[in-house]
Design a protein that fits this description.
Number of domains: 1
Number of helices: 1
Largest sheet: 4 strands, antiparallel
Radius of gyration: 18 Å
Structural class: mainly beta
Number of strands: 9
Helix content: 10-25%
Order of helices and strands: EEEHEEEEEE
Distance between the termini: 6 Å
Strand order of the largest sheet: 3-2-1-9
Length: 127
């Protein structure tokens, strides 16, 4: 049996909620902590494999997370014109990157803007 590793990105939503997104799949969950997120997604993958005999292979191998600081000049647009905001808005953008195993080229995905507490881990599933 092959072991598949999926990048798992988690966001701390509030004191009691963590959102987890299994990159390369449509699977996501909200649980009390990252450990429960990982367990719930592992159960989902196992259930899918048992039901359909198939789970999607991960799109990115050897995944790594990079947080990038981005400064953006915003504007408010109306039918009378575009009006720039006086100060630039600062964002932190998370990018998960690694190798695409199909053609051995670098790949990346941006799951969205994040807080500094974003973590990434790899979950292995025996299929």
């Amino acid at each position: 049996m092959a072991t598949l590793s999926y990048p798992l990105v988690c966001w701390q939503l509030d004191d009691t909620s963590v959102c987890g997104l299994l990159l390369g799949t449509d699977f996501q969950v909200i649980e009390r902590n990252a450990r429960r997120v990982k367990a719930a997604l592992a159960e989902t993958l196992q259930r899918e494999r048992e039901r359909d005999g198939y789970v999607p292979e991960p799109d990115i191998g050897n995944a790594r997370l990079k947080l990038v600081h981005v400064s953006v000049n915003l504007a408010h647009r109306t039918d009378k014109g575009s009006f720039p905001v006086p100060r630039a808005a600062d964002f932190h953008v998370a990018a998960v990157f690694g190798e695409n195993e199909e053609d051995a080229t670098p790949s990346a995905t941006c799951p969205g803007s994040t807080r500094a507490s974003t973590t990434t881990t790899t979950h292995s599933c025996r299929c």
